[in-house]
Amino acid sequence: MRTLPEAECRSMARIVLLQCELEHRHQAPHLAMALYASDLTNSGHEVEMALVHPSALEQAGEAIAGRCDLLVLDSIFPFALVGRLRELSGAPVLVGGHNALQHALRGPADLALCGPGRGPLGQFVSWLDQQDDVRDGPWPTHIPGLWFRNAEGLLDCPTPAGTGSVGSEVFPFQPELNWDYYGPPRAPGSNLRIPSVVAELGCLYNTSAMGSQGPQFYANVQPRLPEATLTDRAEQAVRQLTVGNEGGCTFCVFRTTKFVRKAGASAIPDLLVQIRYLVGLGARGVSLQTEQPLPLLPPLLTELRKDETLVGALEELHVRTIPWLLLRQEEHLLQAIGLCRELGIQLVLGQVGFEAFDPLSLDVFHKGLTATDNRRAARTLSQLSEAHSDCFRGTDGHGLIPLHPWTSPEALATNLQACREDAPWLLPRLHPRSRLELYHEWGPLFWKAQDDGLIEPSDDEFGWRFRFQDDRTSELVAVWATLVALSTQRVQSAPSPATAAHVLLEWVLEAWRQNPEPETRKAAYMALRDRVVGRPA
Question: Strand 111-113 relative to strand 93-96: parallel, antiparallel, unpaired?
């Protein structure tokens, strides 16, 4: 903290918290940082909070320049954005969240807070407030889960992170939701649009992709630590956090997070406390944070029915789950739909990670079900949404990752057909941007891609990017991305409708099938280009 002139002296630290808002800019800030903001404000610190769309990064950075002693970012920010905000703010940068460890290993942030963060962040800010100037350290060694480079340049974590719980991370529940915003137009009232309430922490799908229980795809992959300059105790911590605790979907940053369960009737009172507080602020919907919400919904809705004030205020209840849990727990969902109809609440099931419908991709991602069952789960949502459209919506905001290192043209065709037949609401997700993001470098997917020579460094993302193993896929995706860009440019320059990305994919696949020779295929691609930009044949 820099020393201020006497006229500017103050007793507490100035903290800026920024969240990266990539897609859902019309919804409430993430709950964890909203709770941190409340804690720091109650401790007397000056706190500013803002959601930042990447297109407005410069505006946000200039607005906070010279005005903060610590910049706290969520780990959704890619490295390039973290580095630029650090440069613009002139303050030490701390990154927290589920991907904070990767930021510590490779990113430009000064500090990373891994594991339960509510208590440790408060401890760190209290320490910071007592310092004169710590732009580049040295950093404290007593904060649980705090990672930093020591004087020798080694990554260190002197004090291991503690074990979190719903109680310690969520209560007292008084989130600060009055956040600023930098970015494209945002709907009024978005800060209270579907804020979160928490039932459980982590993900219950902790089955390893390695060994006899995992897909054959990973049969010969050997676990390894990231290649980084670590102290001995940091190396041990990385081993415990990652290699020794891997499980779940192979791309996910939650896969090494310990599952903390407070399910069933024991979770209901805590959820009601959270819902009442948010309704009191003016929220008209909430999002239930747990990967296994369906058995919890009937008892929660039954309790809500006893409170006329809450029932009268709540218009939406959002939940998420996993495809194989959806299939196993459909009866709970049907019961919940009936209760929502009775209470006049719209139930929204989103964020279901279908990811792909071809067998190889499901093995790559270790999704835990067959392509047939994944398609059945998608059909189930289509059918339930149509049959109960008055009170249930199950076709919004789901995940699809058609592009990963081992994607083939045949897999793209399979996914296009599956979406058309069973999940037409997923067709917009068939886009060249729907690529695997390498958020971290531990786990079978990264190790396998590394073994196959498909990984290369990337300072702009999270340290790494992939390339396709199949040259045919590289060609197809390059042509597809070009056509999508041309279609978008045409709309911006003339009043003509865009051609949907999934339609352009179909055109490219057809040109590829019909033209096995490179020269004729190139001519077919050029004809598609002319078709997109509106040139006569």
Answer: parallel
